[in-house]
Design brief:
Elements: H1 13-19, H2 32-47, H3 52-69, H4 77-94, H5 101-118, H6 121-128, H7 138-163, H8 186-191, H9 204-234, H10 237-248, H11 263-275, E1 285-286, E2 291-293, E3 296-298, E4 303-304, H12 308-312
Antiparallel strand pairs: 1-4, 2-3
Helix pairs in contact: 3-4, 4-5, 4-9, 5-7, 9-11
Length: 326
């Protein structure tokens, strides 16, 4: 409980542009609004959890159909994984009001490009020297365009839920009626928070950035893990055969709650994430209280950056730290 916050310093210039002034979960400081936002998102995900099993089954089937449609033609699996991961998150967030595939695919590409542009040295330099904003910067200009595309998409989804469902989906638009959004979707749960909820409803900027966080935090990381798993398994045909036998031997189609009876699949996922974590370093965390780490004292205000890659490939723990051994 001593590392619940993130650094409470002002957001760097590019970070402020991307996060609407630090109003997201990743870059925001441990203020009351940030804590309320975090609690609201956790509660909304819990309420929408019942959708996850059928949704993953449907999305997995669509993913397999798209992969088969390419036949023996070359393809970039990461792009396919990215779109279907983004589509899964969109269905969990928006339910029946998920945007059309073409619009969603364009948004998926926007997120990937936004992260790439944000990581450019010409953009990151603004963190240290904000005065550079006075000079022409194509990277920053591109970042602003991508952020505008992202925000336009997210705002459109929020507006669709606030206006209400269309008549053909069981909604009503008579007499200005505005039916409640589906409560078993993440956005429906967030919009359904009233003044009686703990902390009250989220402000529009925090609601907006909560959705952005769920897209960015889940799309690229999951797609990267899937891509690395495929890359590892390409060199291990015997492991592919064992995984297939385990899945075919399961009683009925496996779901999200069946990982306990699929030990080899669970080990394969864990080993992929051990060797190739979504990021080599975790997000910076700020100590809120006096605590200790590894026997060393940590005072409040200390910023800590966990080195995931070093910890997960520590030769003192793993005999072959750089070898894929599920």
């Amino acid at each position: 409980g001593g590392f619940l916050g993130v650094p409470d310093s002002p957001c760097p210039t590019p970070g402020s542009l991307v996060s609407r002034g630090g109003r997201d979960l990743a870059l925001g400081g441990p203020c009351p609004g940030w804590r309320r936002q975090r609690g609201a998102v956790r509660g909304a995900l819990a309420r929408a959890g019942g959708r996850l099993g059928p949704l993953l089954w449907l999305q997995g089937r669509e993913l397999c159909e798209e992969l088969r449609s390419h036949g023996e033609a070359p393809l970039d699996p990461f792009e396919v994984f990215t779109f279907h991961t983004c589509s899964t998150i969109a269905r969990l967030l928006f339910g029946d009001l998920v945007p059309p595939p073409g619009e969603l695919r364009a948004f998926s590409r926007c997120l990937g490009e936004l992260l790439q542009v944000w990581g450019r040295s010409s953009v990151r330099a603004l963190d240290l020297l904000p005065l550079l904003r006075a000079l022409p910067n194509p990277g920053l200009r591109k970042l602003l365009q991508l952020v505008q595309h992202r925000d336009t998409f997210v705002e459109a989804q929020i507006q669709r839920h606030q206006v209400g469902r269309p008549r053909e989906l069981g909604g009503s638009q008579e007499s200005g009626a505005c039916p409640s959004p589906p409560p078993d979707t993440v956005l429906g749960a967030l919009l359904g928070r009233n003044s009686g909820a703990r902390g009250g409803p989220l402000s529009p900027p925090r609601l907006h950035m909560a959705l952005v966080d769920l897209f960015i935090g889940g799309t690229e990381t999951t797609a990267a893990a899937l891509g690395w798993a495929v890359a590892f398994l390409l060199h291990r045909p015997e492991l592919q055969a064992r995984l297939r036998a385990e899945l075919e031997g399961a009683q009925g189609p496996p779901g999200p709650g069946d990982m306990g009876r699929l030990p080899l699949l669970q080990a394969t996922v864990s080993e992929t994430l051990r060797l190739r974590p979504p990021a080599p370093l975790a997000l910076p965390h700020c100590a809120l209280h006096h605590t200790s780490l590894g026997g060393l004292p940590v005072v409040p205000g200390t910023v800590l950056v966990p080195n995931l890659l070093a910890a997960q490939q520590d030769p003192d723990i793993w005999q072959h730290p750089e070898v894929f051994l599920p």
